[in-house]
User: Fold this.
Amino acid sequence: MIFLHLAPSPCRILPGHSLKDPMHHPQGISPSASFVVASSVLFVYDYTLTIAEEIDLFWLQPRQTWAFAFFIANRYIGLFSRIPEFFGIFVNGSDRAVCSGLLFTNRATTAVLQLIGAVIMGARWQWSL
Assistant:
């Protein structure tokens, strides 16, 4: 499971530019926006490949545990945190309020995902002893 957000926000990488800014690239394509779109598509594709297994292994079990809760939180916080990041590519990088909100959202979700990952890894380590 990926615990880090690997896609850069266009606001942080190229301040003052937007997806429509022709100064980015001769054809008007922003490399950072392209990276956000590509990584988001791959991220969602990975979820669609494993949804059947998730349903069988987690959702259809008669008893839900704390491990189930951490798994679901990790999986869906990561998925839904891509939404503001994806729409951030359509925002002009000079809009400081929007960019600071996107940056805060990215940092907060990354911190939460790291914490969930640390709890999961700590539990695995304790069980292996």
